[in-house]
C-alpha cells in the first residue's frame, strides 16, 4: 500500500475539516461563476420567466443562506447576514455578501460539528424536512448552489451568452478552486 494512502487510513478524518472544506469549495465555485459572468448577462431575464433575472438567481443564493442561518442559527447565537435586493444588487455587492453568508453557513456547520455532528434543533425550524446532521445539511446547501449554478449556465446558453469553456469547466475542476493544503493538491 502506498505511503500516502496508508497515512490517510491511519489518521482519523476530522469532522469539521470534512464538512467545511467541501462547503468552502462550493462557495468558491459560486464566487467564480459570478466573477466570470458577462455584465450583459447579469440583468438578463430567464426565458419564459421575464420577472426572474440572472441577478435574482444569484441573489437567491445569498438570501437563502441568510434564511437558513437565521432559522437554524439565531437561537444559538449565529447572526444571519443582511439579505440583498434581488432586483438591484450589483455583482460587487453580491460577491461581498456571499462571502458573509458563506461564513455564516460555515459557522452553522461548525456548530453542528461541535455538537456531535448535529445542528441543535431550533423553534423556528418548522419545515422539518431536512435532517439536521451536518452531512445532510452540507449536502442540501451544496446541491442547492450547484443546481442554481447549472441553471445560470443553461440560461446563459439559451440567451446566447455562452460562457467560455474554461469557465464552465472550472466549475467542476475543484482542484482549481479547492484550497491548497501543505503544498499539495486536494
Topology:
Blueprint: H1 3-10, H2 15-36, H3 39-42, E1 45-46, E2 49-53, H4 54-73, H5 91-114, H6 134-158, H7 165-170, H8 174-177
Antiparallel strand pairs: 1-2
Q: What is the terminal separation in angstroms? A: 20 Å
The CATH first-level class comes to: Mainly Alpha
Mean pLDDT: 89
- How many helix segments? 8
Unreliable spans are 180-186
Question: What portion of the residues fall into strands of 2 or more residues?
Answer: under 5%
Architecture (CATH level 2) name: Up-down Bundle
What portion of residues is helical?
Answer: 55-70%
Radius of gyration using CA atoms only: 18 Å
How many structural domains are formed by the residues?
Answer: 1
CATH topology: Four Helix Bundle (Hemerythrin (Met), subunit A)
Structure characterization notes:
The chain has one domain: Four Helix Bundle (Hemerythrin (Met), subunit A) (Up-down Bundle). It is built from 8 helices and 2 strands. The chain has helices at 3-10, 15-36, 39-42, 54-73, 91-114, 134-158, 165-170, 174-177; strands spanning 45-46, 49-53. A two-stranded antiparallel sheet has the order 1-2. α2 runs parallel beside α6 (134-158), α4 runs parallel beside α5 (91-114) and α4 packs antiparallel against α6 (134-158). The two termini are 20 Å apart.
Amino acid at each position: 500500500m502506498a505511503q500516502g494512502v496508508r497515512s490517510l487510513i491511519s489518521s482519523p478524518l476530522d469532522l469539521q475539516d470534512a464538512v467545511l472544506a467541501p462547503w468552502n469549495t462550493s462557495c468558491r465555485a459560486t464566487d467564480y461563476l459570478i466573477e466570470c459572468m458577462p455584465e450583459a448577462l447579469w440583468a438578463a431575464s430567464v426565458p419564459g420567466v421575464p420577472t426572474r433575472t440572472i441577478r435574482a438567481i444569484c441573489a437567491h443564493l445569498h438570501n437563502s443562506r441568510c434564511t437558513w442561518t437565521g432559522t437554524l442559527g439565531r437561537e444559538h447565537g449565529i447572526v444571519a447576514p443582511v439579505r440583498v435586493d434581488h432586483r438591484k444588487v450589483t455583482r460587487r455587492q453580491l460577491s461581498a455578501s456571499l462571502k458573509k453568508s458563506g461564513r455564516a453557513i460555515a459557522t452553522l456547520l461548525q456548530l453542528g460539528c461541535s455538537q456531535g455532528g448535529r445542528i441543535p434543533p431550533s423553534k423556528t425550524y418548522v419545515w422539518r424536512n431536512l435532517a439536521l446532521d451536518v452531512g445532510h445539511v452540507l449536502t442540501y446547501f451544496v446541491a442547492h448552489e450547484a443546481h442554481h449554478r447549472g441553471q445560470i449556465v443553461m440560461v446563459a446558453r439559451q440567451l446566447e451568452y455562452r460562457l467560455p469553456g474554461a469557465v464552465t469547466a472550472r466549475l467542476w475542476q475543484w482542484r482549481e478552486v479547492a484550497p491548497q493544503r501543505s503544498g499539495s493538491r486536494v
